[in-house]
Amino acid sequence: MHVNIPVIVTRIIQETETVKRFTLTAKTMELLPAFSSGSHITTFLPTQTGMLERHYSLLNDPVDMLLSYEIAVQKNADSRGGSLYLHTAVEVGSELSISYPKNHFLPSFRARHHVFIAAGIGITPFLSMMSELSRVGKTFELHYAAKSQEQCAFYSQLQTQYPDSCRFYFSADGPAARLQPVVMAGQPIGTHVYFCGPETMVSQFRAAALSFGYPEKSIHFELFTPITPITRSPFVAELRKSNKLITVEEKQSLLEALHQAGIHAPYSCRVGGCGTCAVEVLEGTVAHYDTVLTDGERTQHNQMMTCVSRASCEKLVLNL
């Protein structure tokens, strides 16, 4: 059972034309739960089409007195209701429900140097990381891509706080100004690299980091939306322990189908990045869309993440 925290929106700042910063203050607690840098919360949004769950990084320095949390939300043109609801229906005084903080994107304190690569609203998890690393005397650099300076959220804040550690890349300035993977080349041994942005950008930079010789353990990334499946065909899941057959529809995840059938199925991130929803596969082949399993583990087809992965056959048999 997930225990949620009721909060009140106590401040809203328009950071850019499409990005708002929200300050959330606990309604019933004196202090909010502590968290580590890179953490996010889930917001539960009561939209007209039903309750939506959306994940947002916490912007605060983790050592701040936690009277409130801060999140930033970009209004997406193709929003299915989450960002649109926060931008149009939420105002100061509105009440929301949020989860306890979770962290699947923790900075490595074994790293000798940190290279943060952000695109658009992907800047948000790095704000708390930079605060913490600066406070403890660790070195880092930020490479931040946006359409223009006007659309670059937190530009002034970053320039003020970390003038020697940030470099900005604005696509409006032309192709030569775009952020390229080469910024990761030639870094000191022991450097860790971190990516947050669209799936295509993360995939490009991850592949480049591997080609530059970075070990897997030195490459970190976070996705707030799942990888788009190549195949979305319906399939049947046989639940061996429960003695049930369920159908997973084309626009439905296996996790959603399990919950709809009344099956207890744990989950956390819903984007295939944490491993909480892993289940054992007894029969069938899996189309994997997570970022948890290794290539070798995927070829065995003996486990899957129910939040994102699907069948590449007509039926899977699961140990549920």
Automatic annotation (TrEMBL):
Presence of keyword Phosphoprotein: no
InterPro entries per the UniProt record, alphabetical: 2Fe-2S_ferredoxin-like_sf, 2Fe-2S_ferredoxin-type, 2Fe2S_fd_BS, Benzoxazolinone_Detox_Enz, Beta-grasp_dom_sf, DmmA-like_N, FAD-bd_FR_type, FNR_nucleotide-bd
Domain FAD-binding FR-type: 2-108
All residue ranges annotated as the 2Fe-2S ferredoxin-type domain in the record: 233-320
One GO MF term: 2 iron, 2 sulfur cluster binding
Alphabetized UniProt keyword annotations: 2Fe-2S, Flavoprotein, FMN, Iron, Iron-sulfur, Metal-binding, Oxidoreductase
CDD domains found in the cross-reference section: fer2 (cd00207), PDR_like (cd06185)
Essential cofactor(s): FMN
This protein's name: Oxidoreductase
Annotated source species: Brevibacillus fluminis
Lineage, opening ranks: Bacteria, Bacillati, Bacillota, Bacilli, Bacillales
